[in-house]
Amino acid sequence: MRADRLVSALLLMQRRGxxxxxxxxxxxxxxVATARRDLEAxxxxxxxxxxxxxxxxxxxxxxxxxxxxSGLSANEAQALFLLVGPAAAAxxxxxxxxxxxxxxxxQTFRADAEAAADATMVDPTPWGERDRDRPEMVDRLQAAxxxxxxxxxxxxxxxxxxxxxxxxPWGLVDKDDIWYLIAGTERGxxxxxxxxxxxxxxxxxxxxxxxxxxxxTAWQEVVGDVERKRSRTWATVLVETRYVNVLRxxxxxxxxxxxxxxxxxxRIRLASPTPLDVARNLAGWGGxxxxxxxxxxxxxxxxxxxxxxxxxxxxxxxxxxRRDEDDRRPxxxxxxxxxxxLEAGWRSxxxxxxxxxxxxxxxxPERALGSR
Length: 372
What we know:
This protein is an alpha+beta fold.
């Protein structure tokens, strides 16, 4: 008996309690004789189904015609439906699968599982931005991953170099609404940004994939490598303690407390790819932040300051002289510690045209996650 017919027959008996061979044949689109043989094969194989002869008879599951085909506990069922519920709202296939799984659960689980599926909604679109649709290329690549077929890619890397190559697609990752393809190549494992793939077609050849490969492990290795590259330059700065959370929001995992200075200011360690990147992130703070080291960051800040002073020398000088401390820091009034740099998205010099506007140092990695 085919596995798909087995599951369908069990689900049907679970829903109805009792079915005849004719009803099963109609549901599975097979002959009555085939349906009868399937039911007998299930019983002979030890599956708890039994026939009831006579008028109103048929085949039933032992134990009140209810069994948990999913094998899930109540808590596991709720956790699963909390996770996949939001995804089902955006996909017809996912919704259909969720409904089938819901019918497979014991009656006592269904109400809570159905409520869990509707308990959460995910809105991935940032405020003020357009809705983002899932790229069509993702579906094309996903089909190749599932079918285990090689793919011929046309790819443009971060240096605007266009190449064509055949890869073994191993898996896709959606990180912060940017999709990546992890694939095997002649040079080993590589990571490709999907939005840089100009064309992709299956070759029909079977793709090779290491027996010990897991997507989660591979992606963690990629993330670790990228984060190391994005934190090559560390700087030690002093800032008022009230602004520490602002820096943590800006620098993320590359922001660490490092004690307290004699004057009460917090000592913070920050990191970015280069001294210039660190300076660009700190220049807007003016005198609110003091960079203790390295000298390379201090030099870049001095250069940026000199450029700004030369560009705007004499502009509004009289008005600036009249401003007091609060005028220079309007965001600090009424207990609001948010720095204006949190509200204004800065673009990194490495951002490519057409990419989403981001706030360093959380920009999508350019070269680190682009195959070279």
